[in-house]
Amino acid sequence: MSPDQEPTPAADRPRAGAGRPLRAHARRNRESLVAAARAAFTAADDTVPLEGIARDAGVGIGTLYRHFPTREALVEAVYAAELDDVTGSAPASLLKELPPEQALRAWMERYAAFVATKRAMLNTLHSGWASGRLATPATRERITAAIGALLAEGVRAGSLRGDVEPDDVTAMLLGVFLSTAADDEPERTGRLLDLVVDALRPPGS
């Protein structure tokens, strides 16, 4: 199947992992493909050749198409993996390693990386969501829930304010990423994220 073929609607398309579990070798191939695609989309854009992604994953193009029959299917898998990481495993693991306010700041960096990956895939995502070929994820709700969990830990520790709505923090972060989207200045993004964290500290701290 070529990259230009019309994809199966999302509701009808079988997903890898649905029904019979993937065998270990197939699961490793799928994970390698998703990891290679994440790196490729972040470094370039969603027009990167699928052959290059397969090569970077150490598999043939036929293996890629067995797991992801279309470019949209691959983009959807990368987006889902990124969203699961930034809203699921990242907050919990950071809170195990760092005080809440530091965990929140480190999580903001992870969220920034997610936004960069999403931006690289935006054309494919938007066309897929608009056509119904890709399911629309509850991205903002999940991001806001992750922020809420980090804020709650900071409130309990006394290092973050308790009068802040998590969705307001989401809006602030989106403003930072939108205003710096055209810049190639990660230092500026970092300074703005530092200001956001400072705004979340209790007065006088």
UniProtKB/TrEMBL annotation:
Residues 49-68 bind DNA. The keyword Metal-binding does not apply. Residues 27-86 form the HTH tetR-type domain. It holds the Pfam family TetR_C_43. Residues 1-26 are annotated as: Disordered. Keywords: DNA-binding, Transcription, Transcription regulation. InterPro entries: Homeodomain-like_sf (IPR009057), HTH-type_TetR-like_transc_reg (IPR050109), HTH_TetR (IPR001647), Tet_transcr_reg_TetR-rel_C_sf (IPR036271), TetR_SbtR-like_C (IPR049445). Residues 7-21 have a biased composition (Low complexity). The keyword Transcription applies. PROSITE patterns: HTH_TETR_2. GO terms for molecular function: DNA-binding transcription factor activity; transcription cis-regulatory region binding. Gene3D superfamilies: Tetracycline Repressor, domain 2. PANTHER family: HTH-TYPE TRANSCRIPTIONAL REGULATOR BETI, HTH-TYPE TRANSCRIPTIONAL REGULATOR RUTR. This is TetR/AcrR family transcriptional regulator. The lineage of its organism: Bacteria, Bacillati, Actinomycetota, Actinomycetes, Kitasatosporales.
